[in-house]
Amino acid sequence: MFSFNGIEKDYITSIEEIDTHYGPDRTVERNEISGRDGAVLRRTNNAEKKWTVKFVVKRTETMSLQEIADDMVGWLYTETPKRIVFPNDPDKYYNVMVEGGIEKDEIVTFARCTVTFISLDGKGHSIYL
Q1: Is the dihedral of CA 62, 66, 70, 71 positive or negative?
Q2: Distance CA 83, CA 93 (A)
Q3: pLDDT (tens digit, 9 = 90+) per residue, 55-81?
Q4: S-S: 20 plus which of 12, 51, 97, 105, CB 3.0-4.6 Å?
Q5: How many domains does one find in the chain?
Q6: Are the beta carbons of 34 and 69 closer than 8 angstroms?
Q7: What is the rounded CA–CA span in Å between residue 51 and residue 69?
Q8: Is 12 exposed, middle or buried (0-12, 13-18, 19+ CB in 10 A)?
Q9: CATH number reported for the structural domain that contains residue 88 in this entry
Q10: What CA–CA distances, in Å, run from 119 to 51, 53, 101, 111?
Q11: What are the angstrom distances between the C-alpha of 111 and each of 26, 51, 53, 56, 81?
Q12: Pairwise CA distance, residues 129 & 125, whole Å
């Protein structure tokens, strides 16, 4: 599973997909000079990094899917970035926030959810420091 703000939830039964890329989103600004082939580097900018996470939640004996949805909103929607550890990268944490809404495909006793997390600094940090 994954932990967000140091918390794991039992109702998240599996992570189906984590869609991201290596490194932050990088933009390269350049100047084209008339009469010269190519361009001259002006500066680089490492922007935020995004993850789209698809996971399955299953209702429990004590929580309906609607109660789970309410709990997820209270857990994942924060005013400041919080630590997240992804199962495919367990030695790093990222400081992230949720961007957008939680998309859902509800099927009686379980739901597939999609959440987009964004790291404003785009950097991973070692959990060992």
Answers
A1: positive
A2: 6
A3: 999 998 899 999 999 999 999 999 999
A4: 51
A5: 1
A6: no
A7: 20
A8: middle
A9: 2.40.30.200
A10: 9, 14, 16, 26
A11: 34, 19, 14, 6, 26
A12: 8
- Give the per-residue pLDDT at 46: 85
Work out whether strand 49-58 and strand 82-85 pair parallel, antiparallel, or are unpaired: unpaired
Position 108: which residue type? V
Q: What is the number of residues in the chain? A: 129
* DSSP 8-state code for residue 24: -
SS3 sequence, 29-69? EEEECCCCCCEEEEEEEECCEEEEEEEEEECCCCCCHHHHH
Please give the DSSP secondary-structure letter assigned to residue 7.
B
- Which pLDDT tens digit goes with each residue over 41-60? 999 988 899 999 999 999 98
Domain, as residue range, for 105: 3-126
Encoded tokens for 118:
């964004």
Distance (Å, whole) CA 67 – CA 106: 13
Tokens of 8: 């794991």
